[in-house]
Design goal:
Blueprint (H helix, E strand, L loop, with lengths): L1 H21 L28 H35 L31
Helix pairs in contact: 1-2
Length: 116
Amino acid sequence: MEFIVWIVHVLVAMAVIGLVLMQHGKGADMGAAFGSGSSGSLFGATGSANFLSRTTAVLATAFFLTSMGLTYFSAHKSEVAKLAAHPMQSAAPQPAPANSPMQLPGPLDKSGAIPK
């Protein structure tokens, strides 16, 4: 699943870059304000959004959603890695190895003293 999100993320990013580069900027008509064109305003006509700007908005939303999805997968993967690296210890005590230098005392005798 994560691999598919990566592929979609890269494709959407390339599409957004392409659409942004194809669009006509607002400052591109600035020369028209000084007599070389027929624009009525300083920064060009401000009409309704065209197909390119709407498509860019949809792809930008998809880019943000895939970014959040990849963030979720990354955080979830690190939690799984932490659990795999440090598995929970069992509640039962582990027996000491036979050649361990620390020996536990044996049973008490009838007087309550520890035998040597």
